[in-house]
């Protein structure tokens, strides 16, 4: 553990440099798109929904209903974006991971460093997004601030298995699948825009399997102040399980690719 | 290393090699592509588990002490694994941090090393904008950031122009003088002759020969080589006939499409004897044997891949 921490510290300058170099380029995808969704759906579609009564949404405005869902979805999308092409680049194209393990760093250290960086990227983006939501009046309860650690956990629950998957690929053709069959359906059907109870039963159950649903549910409960303690534990445990199993698989994948 | 082996699935890249490299020595691995050089280098670099045999690096076992070994190694891999979007200097300072050096130490060493490989003026440039030779020099500088006891160089000068190669050789020679142990793989015989105290020729995953450059030439070739060219009108088939007429003049004769090679200890005498037999080659060259002659004799002239 202490070795992993020390080896994490040794990577700090690297990831800081990467962040300084890339953060401007990520502004549009990180902020602009979720902002557009918030404006179009929360305010545009929202005024239409609200005029028909919002009992099905728990009596809050549509904006307040979707804001935590959008926050969690944004966390997921940033996390997956950082877990796909950058990882393949480190392993296959630029091979900077290979240069890292020619030093005392181990494949596991490289995985932890990469995941920590993703957590940082998700957190910084979501802090700003949460602020914007609050400005729009999208936060029903002050507890909603707690949605921040939750959506970082959502990001990690998605990032770890995607990093593991990316480390198993020989080229980037498999990455499109992650977005097509993972991110997009999760975004649409994990309850960000409507309660999943509106879906046919079998799709509703599929939604419960998605880590994003658990993240959306939890951050919404927090921001609407409708927390059920047992459900909270279940949500957190489920997200943690995705993160931990994914991390283990990612370490195995990196070890296979880097130590051969 | 004793009986060292490496397999990838069914393919045996290294099939059992024994050798010792001494502290302060410059040791070379020569061999055609696919001979097992890079696999051996990766095992020595403690980033590739052995499939058989024993291997000790700096007295340590790579299976259990990989990070401690790598802390004392400098590695210049075959492909430059530089981060192309970072600046030249950042590539050095960030790499030093992986070894646990302080930021101040990293900065100081980066500046020294940039000076050493003549890249000081390029310090702030992105790696993308460097020429191939500059990238190679930067990769070598990066491998030195941790002040390694053992430096692994996998084909350090492949793809470089002659100026860049000679500059690198100078640098490597200075490192050797400073007491750094060097292990080098190369395709270039002149490089091996310049740099290596001792070397092995590998072929098909095994060691075909071992010794100093001079010993290898003595053991596997003759002192001199006489090259006879008979002009473009003489066919390969005629070469075979000509070779028959002079075969007793040399220890060994090699027939090539454009010339005959006579391996002999006295090249001039062979030339005189050729003329005495009434043969009149269009051009004659007497030269010393080189490692290239040894290499081609041991590994053949057939293309490997």
Automatic annotation (TrEMBL), chain A:
One MF term in the entry's GO annotations: ABC-type transporter activity
Residues passing through the membrane, by range: 26-45, 65-88, 109-136, 142-166, 178-196, 230-251
Gene Ontology BP terms: response to antibiotic
Main localization of the protein described in the UniProt heading: membrane
GO cellular component, one term: ATP-binding cassette (ABC) transporter complex
Membrane topology designation: Multi-pass membrane protein
Alphabetized InterPro entries for the sequence: ABC2_TM, ABC2_TM_bact-type, ABC_2_transport, Nod_factor_ABC_transporter
Short name of one Pfam family: ABC2_membrane
ABC transmembrane type-2 domain: residues covered: 25-257
Cell location: Cell membrane; Membrane
Annotated keywords: Antibiotic resistance, Cell membrane, Membrane, Transmembrane, Transmembrane helix, Transport
Family: Belongs to the ABC-2 integral membrane protein family.
Protein name: Transport permease protein
């Amino acid at each position: 553990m202490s070795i992993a921490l020390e080896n994490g510290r040794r990577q700090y300058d690297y990831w800081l440099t990467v962040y300084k170099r890339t953060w401007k380029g990520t502004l549009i995808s990180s902020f602009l798109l979720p902002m557009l969704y918030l404006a179009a759906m929360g305010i545009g579609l929202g005024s239409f929904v609200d005029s028909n009564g919002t009992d099905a949404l728990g009596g809050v405005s549509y904006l307040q209903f979707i804001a935590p869902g959008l926050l969690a979805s944004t966390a997921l999308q940033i996390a997956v974006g950082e877990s796909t092409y950058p990882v393949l680049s480190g392993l296959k194209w630029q091979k900077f991971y290979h240069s890292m393990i020619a030093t005392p760093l181990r494949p596991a250290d490289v995985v932890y460093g990469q995941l920590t960086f993703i957590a940082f990227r998700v957190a910084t983006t979501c802090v700003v997004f949460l602020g914007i939501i609050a400005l729009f009046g999208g936060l029903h309860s002050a507890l909603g601030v707690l949605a921040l650690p939750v959506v970082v956990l959502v990001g990690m629950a998605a990032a770890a298995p995607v990093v593991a998957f990316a480390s198993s690929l020989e080229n980037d053709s498999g990455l499109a699948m992650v977005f097509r069959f993972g991110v997009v359906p999760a975004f649409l059907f994990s309850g960000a825009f409507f309660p999943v109870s509106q879906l046919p039963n079998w799709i509703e159950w599929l939604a419960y399997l998605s880590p994003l649903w658990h993240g959306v549910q939890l951050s919404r409960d927090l921001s609407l102040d409708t927390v059920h303690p047992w459900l909270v534990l279940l949500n957190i445990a489920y997200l943690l399980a995705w993160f931990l199993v994914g991390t283990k698989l990612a370490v195995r994948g990196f070890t296979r690719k880097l130590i051969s | 290393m004793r009986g060292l082996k490496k397999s990838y699935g069914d393919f045996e890249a290294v099939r059992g090699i024994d050798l010792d490299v001494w502290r302060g020595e410059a040791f070379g691995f020569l061999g055609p592509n696919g001979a097992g050089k890079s696999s051996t280098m990766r095992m020595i670099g403690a980033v590739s588990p052995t499939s058989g045999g024993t291997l000790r690096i700096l007295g340590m076992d790579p299976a259990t002490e990989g990070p401690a070994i790598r802390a004392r190694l400098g590695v210049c891999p075959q492909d430059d694994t530089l981060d192309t979007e970072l600046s030249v200097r950042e590539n050095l300072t960030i790499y030093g941090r992986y070894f646990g050096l302080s930021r101040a130490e990293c900065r100081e060493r980066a500046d020294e090393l940039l000076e050493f490989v003549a890249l000081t003026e390029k310090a702030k440039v992105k790696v993308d904008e460097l020429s191939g030779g500059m990238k190679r020099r930067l990769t070598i500088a990066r491998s030195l950031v941790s002040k390694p006891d053992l430096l692994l160089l996998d084909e350090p000068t492949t793809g470089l122009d002659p100026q860049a190669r000679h500059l690198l050789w100078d640098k490597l020679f200075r490192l050797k003088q400073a007491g750094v142990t060097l292990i080098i793989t190369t395709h270039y015989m002149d490089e091996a002759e310049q740099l290596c105290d001792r070397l092995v020729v590998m072929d098909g995953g095994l060691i075909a020969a071992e010794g100093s450059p001079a010993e290898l030439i003595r053991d596997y070739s003759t002192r001199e080589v006489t090259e006879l060219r008979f002009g473009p009108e003489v066919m390969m088939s005629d070469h075979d006939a000509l070779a028959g007429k002079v075969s007793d003049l040399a220890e060994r004769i090699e027939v090539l499409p454009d010339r005959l090679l006579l391996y002999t200890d006295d090249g001039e005498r062979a030339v005189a004897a050729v003329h005495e037999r009434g043969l009149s080659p269009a051009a004659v060259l007497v030269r010393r044997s080189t490692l290239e002659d040894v290499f081609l004799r041991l590994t053949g002239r057939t293309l490997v891949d």
